[in-house]
Amino acid sequence: MREPNMSQKPVSTVAVPQSVVSAEAVSVALEAAVAKAAELGVKINVAVADSGGNLSGFLRMPGAFVQSIDIAIDKAYTAAGFGFSTKDWMKLIGHDDGMKFGFSARPRLVVFGGGLPLRVNGELIGGIGVSGASEEQDEICARAALDAIGAE
């Protein structure tokens, strides 16, 4: 025998729409980040994740650090998942040691610069992660990608 529905209210919405970055925008963003890196004279890995943190695209410049592949992907994942710059993590954590130790133990969470959320009209549609140069250069390349697709 089935248990009765205790709330007695029908579910009005089972699924909700979720915007994600388009394949075309991913391609443009990746190319823009690489073009900015070439202009700066650095070699990078760049990844774009959709609003669910799933990898949507990746590009590696020849000669970019192999170890930075996963870092770029994880920066995109972190920025998409939380909706703010990876560089801002330490500001938000402050002096809370519990949070510092807890978050640092989380796989895939990156707490240094180079990961930015992708927003269009205020809506989070994904994240971009750049790794391979300095933290500042990584972020410059990520911002060039946002500018190229008209994201905030």
Task: Give a short summary of the structure.
The protein has 152 residues and is of the alpha+beta class. It has helices at residues 23-40, 68-82, 89-93, 97-104, 135-149; strands at 45-50, 55-60, 115-120, 123-131.
> Going across the major beta sheet, what is the strand order?
2-1-4-3
Overall number of structural domains: 1
Strand/helix succession: HEEHHHEEH
| CATH class designation | Alpha Beta
Average pLDDT number: 92
From the spread of the alpha carbons, the general shape counts as globular
CATH superfamily heading: Haem-degrading domain
Beta-strand percentage range: 15-25%
CATH architecture: 2-Layer Sandwich
What fold name stands as the CATH topology? Beta-Lactamase
Largest sheet: number of strands, sense, barrel closure: 4 strands, antiparallel
Helix content: 40-55%
Outline the structure in words.
With 152 residues, this protein is of the alpha+beta class. It has one domain: Haem-degrading domain (Beta-Lactamase), CATH 3.30.450.150. The chain contains five helices and four strands, in the order H-E-E-H-H-H-E-E-H. It has helices at residues 23-40, 68-82, 89-93, 97-104, 135-149, and strands at residues 45-50, 55-60, 115-120, 123-131. It has a four-stranded antiparallel sheet with strand order 2-1-4-3. A hairpin with a 4-residue loop joins strand 1 and strand 2 (55-60). The radius of gyration is 18 Å and the shape is globular. InterPro entries: GlcG_carb_metab_protein, PduO/GlcC-like, PduO/GlcC-like_sf.
